[in-house]
Amino acid sequence: MAEIHSLAYAGFGVSDLDKWQWLATDIIGMQVAHRDEQGLTLRMDEYAQRFFLEKNPIDDILVAGWQFRSEQELESYVRELREKEVPVEVLSREMLQRRKVEKAYSVEDPNGFTHEFFFGHSEAGLNDAFRSKVLKGSFVTGDLGIGHLLPFAKNGPQTVSFYQDVLKLRVSDYIREEVQPGIVVDATFFHTATGRHHSIATAQAPSPKVLNHFMVQVQNMDDVGLAYDRCIKAGIPIILELGHHPNDRTFSFYAQTPSGFNFEMGWGGVVIDDRHWEVKAFNKMSDWGHKRNIVL
């Protein structure tokens, strides 16, 4: 059965490339791969690019890029989508060159961004190892992908059905928390074949942004604390202070990007073995910490 391997890249439309470059390199610890007047691309590891930022006043998510192990798996997956009468587009040669992949297709998410499916990524040259200005260690990527995305859902049941039944992502667990009297956040978390606890999650909420946050994971716990300190020193708004999630068991904090949505920087986290995994429902987002400082 053809199945998504990992979340390999993400693209955002941003209005201020200079502020984003500073955040990505001097605060989070990524490396610029390329920049021109239209945008910039960012590295986290040996891949030629992991995030791309396009000059665009939308200040929101544009693309989630999903990787397959082989061309055969990709083609089998696309055939299944078409059998379900999902509109599938072929990426042009120009777009493949921009994404630095061999072959790719795309479908539209119910919430206004694009999912791209590909195989055949490009890597940086042998003499161009990833270098971070600020990290003590490195990012956790590889088979687990870049981290995760949490876009808001305009229609929760429709979005959950799309991720589970159309994209064929696996449900990891649920969190249903009453954040204010009568207001319940109902979030569903999904993982791919390689088992990062979630590569995408969603919850229905009124929001001017589609994307609530993206998450990157680091190998060294100190890098979470050091990034937190850099945010404080730079005056970057901290949305959720240092804390711990009960479902994916990640230690993290959340801060605001120049586009108004957030980033999460975390350490730890569960890698799911589906042979032994039990889907559960939790009643709180955090079992300690993550004090909210700003209500968006």
Automatic annotation (TrEMBL):
Its cofactor is Fe(2+). It comes from the Bacteria. Keywords: Aromatic hydrocarbons catabolism, Dioxygenase, Iron, Metal-binding, Oxidoreductase, Repeat. The keyword rRNA processing does not apply. Gene3D superfamilies: 2,3-Dihydroxybiphenyl 1,2-Dioxygenase, domain 1. One of its GO terms (molecular function) is ferrous iron binding. It holds the Pfam family Glyoxalase. SUPFAM superfamilies: Glyoxalase/Bleomycin resistance protein/Dihydroxybiphenyl dioxygenase (SSF54593). Residues 6-120, 145-268 form the VOC domain. InterPro entries: Glyas_Bleomycin-R_OHBP_Dase (IPR029068), Glyas_Fos-R_dOase_dom (IPR004360), VOC_core (IPR037523), Xdiol_ring_cleave_dOase_1/2 (IPR000486). Belongs to the extradiol ring-cleavage dioxygenase family. This is Glyoxalase. It comes from Pseudomonas silesiensis.
